Amino acid sequence: MQIRARMSMSADGYVTTPSGWPALTADPVYVSGESHGVREFLAGCEAALMGRTTFEPALTNDRWPWPDLDVFVLASHRPAGTPDHVVTDNDPARLLEKLRAANRGGDIHLIGGPLTIGAFHAIGALDTLELVVLPLLFGGGTRLTPALDPATGLTLEHQRALPGGSVEIIYPCRGRRTVLPRKPASQR
To answer: How many domains, in total, are found in the chain?
Structure first.
């Protein structure tokens, strides 16, 4: 089991558009049907792990976004309308243990914003950070990460060009712990 964060970002470092939509939704090549490796990535995943802010919009979707994946949510409370099969917990380490107990050998897609990804990275649970850098400049939105220590470094494992000028880059993270700022419990 590997915990893999895969997210798209603009060339200027934003994972959401200024209006709050995921960066990938602004790429005309992706919108026209090119997967940018998403299908291949998800084929090896058996579960989705995310924060409450990423999860809650799915509760009002016409279709469930993760029909073939087990779902685990880091949240200070169980959102109203959460299906019974979704596992929630407010402690990243405890949620990780629940995820490991349920795992059947597939990878885990860590979905979410910088705070959720940072929470699992801080406890040493993030195996890879996979980024799709889009040939777009947003000038605003949510940044990939808050400010980090200048000593924080990554080592490139793999890169490939994608249609439309996007680039996929993959960094291993196992064993690298960077303590990222955490949101106060009242804001989670």
So the answer is: 1
